[in-house]
């Protein structure tokens, strides 16, 4: 396509096209990438949310190493990358935390999407690990030996007692 001014229409189709979708965690499966992929973008307008999701999708998102200064309260309280307003100020003034405009916030601060009950529905996790988590949750629901009037210290001691015999049996059985 020519770079001449005014020449904006193309007469042919795209010459090369990708066969597969880009995956930002294909070769980089570090904990940093996993945290970035699971981070919710709350307190921002729809446009800013789309921009942040694009940055995450194509490995352009770089988290902050130190808090930035908020443009409203002038304190170093901005902990999210690409944001200019801290969460309390954005909530108080009803502004987008990224662009600072008074637009409708898509996902309110502090509220996570409740579309699914299971955290295993994301594409980044394997099905086998989800099955194990569901079994653990089901096993924890069947614990009827809870003393509601026991103090925290008593509960901690009881947990220590219940863990000790299982370790000793495993050590003597080997």
UniProtKB/TrEMBL annotation:
This is Uncharacterized protein C9orf85 homolog. Residues 1-21, 116-128 have a biased composition (Polar residues). Pfam families: DUF2039. InterPro entries: DUF2039 (IPR019351). The gene is c1h9orf85.L. Residues 1-38, 116-174 are annotated as: Disordered. Residues 129-155 have a biased composition (Acidic residues).
């Amino acid at each position: 396509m020519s770079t001449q001014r005014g020449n904006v229409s193309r007469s042919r189709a795209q010459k090369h096209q990708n066969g597969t979708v880009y995956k930002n965690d294909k070769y980089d499966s570090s904990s940093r990438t996993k945290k970035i992929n699971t981070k919710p973008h709350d307190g921002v307008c729809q446009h800013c949310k789309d921009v942040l999701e694009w940055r995450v999708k194509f490995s352009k998102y770089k988290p902050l190493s130190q808090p930035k200064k908020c443009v409203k309260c002038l304190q170093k309280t901005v902990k999210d990358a690409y944001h200019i307003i801290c969460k309390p100020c954005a909530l108080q003034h009803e502004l987008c935390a990224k662009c600072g405009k008074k637009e409708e916030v898509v996902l309110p601060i502090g509220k996570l999407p409740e579309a699914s009950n299971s955290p295993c529905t994301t594409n980044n996790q394997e099905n086998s690990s989800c099955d194990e988590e569901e079994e653990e949750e089901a096993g924890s629901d069947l614990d009827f030996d809870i003393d509601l009037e026991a103090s925290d210290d008593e509960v901690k001691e009881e947990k220590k007692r219940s863990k000790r015999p299982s370790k000793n049996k495993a050590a003597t059985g080997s």
